[in-house]
């Protein structure tokens, strides 16, 4: 009769708490290192949360500033944009001269980025800053949260990667020690047999 397969908690317990007559001291130290690495990875989660909170506060403030300073207006394209290039990037953008009206009623002209193939006379929305210059759209609250979550996740993954590499390096070093110990014991055993 085949024994029932062990559950993952039992296998994990055997991994971090090795026992038996063939277990060497370095096997126990390696298991302890694995436990410490797991605990440090878990402890890094709240630190990543603090990082997310700080980045979100800064990005939210930046979003509020941009939303207060930037205005969307309609620009009229004054020249034909170049045509799409076959085999080029999926999103092709070019700069062309355009004319737009500021919130105070004055007109301003300058280069704006438009999709390739835009015709002269096309009206399109652009964002301008307080000085009336074209700028990217303001950062949204969702974008601020996305940036903060991304930074926090990358920070936590960086900690996990460093811990994984440390455990792997120790494991490889201990594999060499174990192999050398086994070689010495086999040599001793073979000398004992030949000496009879």
What does this protein structure show overall?
The chain is elongated and about 100 Å long. The protein has a five-stranded antiparallel sheet. It has helices spanning 8-16, 25-69, 141-194, and strands at residues 71-77, 93-101, 107-115, 123-128, 134-135. The model has no long low-confidence stretch (mean pLDDT 85). The chain is α+β, with helices and mostly antiparallel strands. Helix 2 runs antiparallel to helix 3.
How far is the N terminus from the C terminus?
Answer: 42 Å
Which structural class is indicated by helix and strand composition?
alpha+beta
State Rg: 32 Å
Helix content: 55-70%
Order of helices and strands: HHEEEEEH
Mean pLDDT: 85
User: How much of the sequence is in beta strands?
Assistant: 15-25%
For the biggest sheet, the summary is:
5 strands, antiparallel
Which residues sit in consecutive blocks of at least 5 with pLDDT less than 50? none
| Total count of domains | 2
The total of beta strands comes to: 5
- Described by the principal axes of the CA atoms, the overall outline is elongated
Number of helices: 3
Which strands sit side by side, in order, in the main sheet? 3-2-1-4-5
Short key terms for the protein model shown above:
single chain; alpha+beta; 2 domains; 3 helices; 5 strands
């Amino acid at each position: 009769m085949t024994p029932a397969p062990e559950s993952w908690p039992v296998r994990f317990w055997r991994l971090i708490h090795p026992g038996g007559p063939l277990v060497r001291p370095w096997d126990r130290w390696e298991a302890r290192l694995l436990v410490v690495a797991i605990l440090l990875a878990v402890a890094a989660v709240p630190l990543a949360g603090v990082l997310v909170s700080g980045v979100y506060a800064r990005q939210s403030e930046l979003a509020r500033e941009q939303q207060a300073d930037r205005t969307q207006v309609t620009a009229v394209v004054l020249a034909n944009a170049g045509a799409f290039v076959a085999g080029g990037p999926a999103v092709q953008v070019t700069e062309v001269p355009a004319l737009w009206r500021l919130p105070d009623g004055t007109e301003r002209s300058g280069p704006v980025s438009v999709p390739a193939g835009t015709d002269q006379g096309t009206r399109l929305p652009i964002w301008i800053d307080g000085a009336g210059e074209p700028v990217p759209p303001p950062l949204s609250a969702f974008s601020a949260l996305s940036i903060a979550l991304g930074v926090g996740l990358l920070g936590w993954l960086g900690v996990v990667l460093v811990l994984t590499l440390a455990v792997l390096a120790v494991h490889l070093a201990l594999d060499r020690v174990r192999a050398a110990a086994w070689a010495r014991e086999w040599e001793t055993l073979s000398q004992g047999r030949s000496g009879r």
